[in-house]
Write a structure and sequence with these properties.
Distance between the termini: 21 Å
Oligomer: single chain
Radius of gyration: 21 Å
Number of helices: 14
Shape: globular
């Protein structure tokens, strides 16, 4: 399909583009840099609304811990700017892409267990609804958000409700120091037990992951790759003396085998955040899934899947997030495992060829009452289905 790209330079031009699409009944694929295009189902649209031209920081108030930027602003610009002032986006998003894409896809990393998700840090938005109307929601401080919390609704909506043009996010001081305790040789069940103890401790753990032997061996961090077996990771962050004291106490309590310093800690948690141990996307590759389940259920769900499928996986979020590669046509088995274990949760197909994602429920199928609510929300923002139709669920 030949795609015609509309690239506005202002919010007003973005609204004009949506109004044109509405009048012509032509759906739009909404995108920024395109780096998140492989998430969700492929959008069947003859036109793309490229918002990368809406780029630039509108206001940054370090003392107030608030940043406002146009939606197409590259994260490669925002990250270093925050770092210069000793600040960051605490939910640990992956690198690259734009601020709009980050919020629209609701992306967060290992620190989600302590800092919350992208939606917890979105304070305000401006954008164009599927009605072609420019509007704003939320504010620049939490106390300004009253009534219907539109910014949180937009986080994780994958551009199906609004073409975001401007976003205000909360920023926080970046940790001065970071250390990671390593425990060697635990199985999945034992590792999750240790991670649970660490997360329940008074030591403010901000990362809790478990790498089976095959994954650990491929780490770029020598102490992890050379462990000769599975490696369980527990991260502590904050002011230098505090990190030193908490690590010493936690190392004794957990009987940890080793401790990574700052640089190696940053490196291994980047690997965990991005799932770098899994390859690219070609038809014969295993498909990449992310399963979100109650942490105590993680090992059981994974074991159930492994009885049927040849998979490779590791655990994050204390066992509550399973990164998993599986053969094609594994969706039913994976989702049945979540249900059969009584765990609840959801399974999302993160990476697969377009042809597969077009015919697969990429996101967890919703019960009919929730699906009906989803349709009503979609209709209230985009009654003609102009914005990213079918990106999350077929026909929505």
């Amino acid at each position: 399909m030949t795609i015609t790209t509309l690239k506005p330079d202002t919010a007003a031009q973005a609204a004009e583009a949506v109004r044109w699409a509405l009048s012509a009944e032509e759906p739009l694929e909404v995108l920024g840099s395109g780096s998140r295009r492989g998430l969700g189902r492929p959008v069947q649209a003859g036109h793309a609304l490229d918002l990368s031209g809406l780029s630039g920081v509108v206001a940054y108030e370090p003392e107030e811990l608030v940043l406002t930027a146009l939606a197409g602003t590259p994260m490669d610009l925002i990250g270093p700017m925050l770092a210069e002032r000793g600040q960051h986006l605490a939910f640990e998003p992956p690198e690259g892409g734009t601020l709009g894409g980050l919020i629209a896809c609701g992306l967060a990393g290992p620190r989600r267990i302590s800092a919350g998700s992208a939606r917890d840090h979105a304070l305000g938005i401006a954008g164009v609804s599927g009605r072609g109307e420019l509007y704003k929601g939320g504010g620049k401080v939490v106390k300004n958000v009253t009534g219907y919390d539109v910014p949180k609704l937009m986080a994780g909506s994958f551009g199906t409700l609004t073409a975001l043009t401007e976003i205000t996010v909360k920023v926080l001081p970046a940790p001065e120091d970071t250390a990671t305790l390593l425990l060697f040789g635990l199985d999945d069940q034992g590792a999750v037990g240790v991670l649970d103890r660490a997360l329940r401790s008074p030591y403010d753990v901000s990362g809790a992951a478990h790498l089976p032997a095959g994954i650990a061996a491929r780490s770029g961090v020598a102490a992890v790759a050379g462990a000769g077996g599975a490696v369980t990771l527990v991260r502590v962050e904050g002011f230098g003396p505090s990190v030193t004291a908490r690590v010493a106490l936690l190392r004794e309590e957990l009987r940890a085998d080793s401790v990574l310093g700052r640089d190696e800690s940053l490196a291994v948690w980047r690997e965990v955040r991005d799932g770098v141990w899994f390859g690219g996307v070609v038809a014969e590759d295993p498909h990449l899934w992310k399963l979100s389940v109650p942490p105590a259920s993680g090992p059981g769900v994974l074991a159930t899947i492994q009885r049927t499928l040849t998979v490779e996986a590791f655990l994050d979020w204390g066992g509550g997030l399973i990164w998993l590669t599986a053969p094609p046509d594994s969706a039913a088995t994976i989702r049945a495992a979540i249900g059969n274990e009584g765990a609840g949760g959801h399974a999302t197909l993160v990476r697969a060829p377009d042809a597969v994602r077009a015919v697969t429920e990429v996101f967890q199928p919703l019960p009919e009452p929730l699906m009906a609510l989803t349709r009503r929300v979609k209709a209230s923002f985009d009654p003609k289905g102009i914005l990213n139709p079918g990106r999350m669920h077929a026909g929505v």
